[in-house]
């Protein structure tokens, strides 16, 4: 059994069968990405998922940006 825990994202087989969720909630990280892709605002996401904090959303988006930039930097044109 693998547990990935941070102050923002938790992945545990005991929570939604291992789907990565916001720490302290059962809200999948993918829900935020789906909202962004659909053109919804962060405010709308937070209104629909009040157990997630703005700080958590900001941290996930910053992590996504960092990982994207690392991937791009690792594969220069």
Automatic annotation (TrEMBL):
Q: Which organism is it from?
A: Candidatus Viridilinea mediisalina
Q: Which Gene3D superfamilies match?
A: Winged helix-like DNA-binding domain superfamily/Winged helix DNA-binding domain
Name used for this protein in its record: Antitoxin
The record's listing under Pfam families reads:
DUF433
Its organism's taxonomic lineage begins at: Bacteria, Bacillati, Chloroflexota, Chloroflexia, Chloroflexales
């Amino acid at each position: 059994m693998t547990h990935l825990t941070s102050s923002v994202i938790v992945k545990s087989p005991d929570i939604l069968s291992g789907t990565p969720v916001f720490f302290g909630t059962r809200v999948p990280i993918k829900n935020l990405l789906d909202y962004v892709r659909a053109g919804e605002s962060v405010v709308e996401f937070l209104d629909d998922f009040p157990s997630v904090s703005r700080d958590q959303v900001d941290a996930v988006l910053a992590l996504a940006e960092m990982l994207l930039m690392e991937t791009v930097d690792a594969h220069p044109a």
